[in-house]
Amino acid sequence: MFRKLLKSGVAWGLQQTHFGGQSSRFVAAYHRTVDEFPRDPDSGIPSLYISVKMLERQLDWIGRRFRFVSLDELMSLPPDAAPAAAVTFDDGYVDFYRQAFPLLKRKGIPAAVFVVTDLVGTTEWQIHDRIYGLLARSWRPGLAHALVDPLLSTMPQATLLRVIEHWQSGAALTDPDRRSLNWDEIAELHRAGITIGSHTRTHAILPAESKETVWSELRGSRLAIEARIGAPVRHFAYPCGQFNGAALKAVEDAGYHFAYTICAHRNRAHSHLTIPRKVLWENSCLDAAGSFSPSIMGCHVDGSFDLFKGCEMNHGGALCWS
Ligand SMILES: [Zn+2]
Ligand SMILES: [Zn+2]
Q: Which of 36, 57, 157, 197 has its CA 20 to 30 A from that of 223?
């Protein structure tokens, strides 16, 4: 409670003094959109969820300050253009099609979806959902949440999958609402103007993988999407925002023009491959009383909070290049 009060107070003060300043480009990163935010933490990683109602509230706030544009348009705007924002959704959950897309269509807001191509059309869970589901079920959701990212970023995915398979024996994780989009839905979204980007083949954390795996994840996912939608795939989102120097180079070599992180770090020589996004979810902009706070939203959008909170990721020297 004290932390929430402090956050609300700091956010109000920063917004009053315009401390963070008005940024002229903003990219939001969402994951799952649901009718109701799940109150039971066993259901899944809380910070991946936003309700349709809260998504609309956040988009309305953004829309009063920025013009919504597609990623292609955002990347081609001259530096002195009016403030513009893009909205992105990671992982390619089917709820993008069912819950977010109708809202975006109604409001005329362009968006992008970054899909994990090996999961398209399957009922297999994303790897982070599998880790969380197993830990939360056999342990405690709070601790499970704290362990997902360290496990993902320290182990090659093949090793982690062997551990999960062993652990999972007999404990099936099923939930049809958690499935990924299928190719028909992706093709329909593309025809409707939604940008389809890549998020690798299997949600591999690139700095944890071998050169060969990184190449197959990047090139394989781009070719898979292009074969289905019949259009070039120019945009890539790093799984869990994790990148290092080798990942940047591989992303470029694999044919992507733009790549998106989830922190404020940029590589000066490859700024188009380290485009910052802000992850937003149901509770990210709530005040101590549990209400939507325009001041907190403002601090997330203008980056004020990032000044106090460092990035926990190890970018392996990728930030020093110039
Ligand atoms: Zn992801
Ligand atoms: Zn960072």
A: 157
